[in-house]
Amino acid sequence: MTSAVASNLFADLLSGPRPSEWDSLREEAEARLARRDLPTTRDEDWKYTDLKALGAITFGPAPRATVDVSGHLLPEMVGNRQVFVNGHHSPHASCASAVPAGVRFLPLSTASEACHALGSVGPTHNQSPFEDLNTARFVDGAVLLVPKNLKVALPLHLLFLTKAETPITVFPRLMVVLERGAELELVEEHHGEGTYLTCPVVEIRVAEGAVLRHERVQRDSDEAFHLGTLKAEVAKGGQYHSRTLSFGARLSRQQPWVRLAESAEATLDGLALLDGAQVADTHSFMLHAEPHARSHQLHKCIVDGHARAVFNGQVLVAPKAQGTDAKQQSRNLLLSETARVDTKPQLEIYADDVKCSHGATVGALDPEELFYLQSRGLNADDARNLLTYGFAADVLTHIPVASLRRALRQLVMARTQAASLGDLA
Amino acid sequence: MLSIKNLTASINGTPVLNGIDLEIRAGETHAIMGPNGSGKSTLGKVLAGHPAYEVTGGEVLFEGQNLFEMEADARARAGIFMGFQHPIEVPGVSNASFLRLAYNKKAEAEGRDELDPLEFDDFIHEKIKVVAMKEEFLDRSLNEGFSGGEKKRNEILQMAVLEPRLAILDELDSGLDIDALRVLGDAVNKLQRADRALLIITHFPRILEIIQPQFVHVLSGGRILKSAGKELALELEERGYDWVLEEAAAGGAR
Lengths: 425, 254
Description:
heterodimer; A: alpha/beta; twelve-stranded mixed sheet; ten-stranded mixed sheet; 22 strands; disordered N terminus; B: alpha/beta; Rossmann fold; six-stranded mixed sheet
């Protein structure tokens, strides 16, 4: 039964032409979307994140655009970056000359290999509609393939930039494959200006004994909607460590899904710094499918103004996943009376020999901590700002790319009014 | 330097200090001793300006200024330092940059030149020698993951950096082994000067063998029951606190 009355965001977005290639993948996604409407707060999964404002906007397709990327480049990003603007690869802004031989780091549109893996990571059901939207309409993306036993010394950078003069949709896509024993540090950044909907989809395969460290920075515009999906499968003894830092967007949602095989390890750390009427939602799923895997999640939110943070952390330990060690922490700092946090751990444990812990804290700054700093001569405002900065900067301490760490610390200092306190690193 | 007259204070409506009188002059070292719950740590916190305590009566003058007209941070900048029994951990802020920030806030208040990171680096490397702190503790987050002893060492380092007029050290000895106590006690002795006063708050007399006070006061029930010279500490070591309490009761103390 179809309704001719309500305009449906998905139907509108799919009304344009289907981009070339990946036909069967796109058809399946379109078929699933045809049966769906925009989620509402009546859906359990979207209870705290209202998409009404998104449904009220009419989005058009993203035109090619040129952007001055110099402001987004860090000193380390020479010869090791791929840049996408409005979902299209930007060859002039990209530079991959320093990428070691054997590593494939290139736009999907020019890659023939690895593409058979696209759409293969993760469960084949329960896709988010925004993942399906991406699959149905992405125009380009990045492929990154590190061959067996190659340890890449240089961090690789991906910049997804959006420039929207009128409301547009962008569908960044990323496929990362680390072969056995490979190691890589990857930085993925999202920046933009204007009103847009971006639905990035990241697929990751970490083979046996391989190690991927993944820094993710979301600095979308204040009018943007960022609805992202990340799926990672980590094979035996492999490691996937990620840190997602959310600063921008009017409304953002991160949906990381990680499957751990035997003795694999994963870190899913997060920081959201919210103000005004921003909403940042993280719905994570950690699947301990096999024995002796370890996972660690620390999710921090600093919420000011009328902003709202949502965290839903699912951990599923399968019956055969004995010896699982899973830790999850959700820590939230509320800086105003009207800020709000909804946090919920969700542990489902079907094995009996496991170590699982979770905890959630929501609160204001601790008066004892404020007193300690004031007793050292800092006035009340400086003490508050310093503690707020420290709460956030704690997540940045272990970022291995020095210039990125510095840039993010400065950003956090500015956002926590700690800039007047000098260099706190 | 510090003149406390009939000080009373309460927390959540419960009286905890019930009339303290104490005079501390520059160059002096005083020890406040007493059983657990006697109010001795409370006295330190009230002097440092902890917001949870309400001053209900009496007055405290610090170098002629009414202490209770100053917030905790203003008292610190005026020269009061409290070494905490349980120092707070602040992740994300390095120890060195915190020390520099605190140093510069005080320098600014005193109209002295602030130190830039390089100048401060030289300055702090001299200071850590005083407390025998390893350099790596400067780069770590403030007190984060420090052992109890390392935190206390860091408190004395802060004292060395901030050069207070009056240092109140609350249970410096708790969580310290005998060697660390010796190092920090010696450091405090080196920091004592003719224009500085020390107020040592402690349950155990042991620390007073290293930091020797001229005056020892026994606090109980929020009152000073007995004041004497350093020989009182030795007597408490041998006999405990009960006799002081009994003597005070027999002597008709209210």
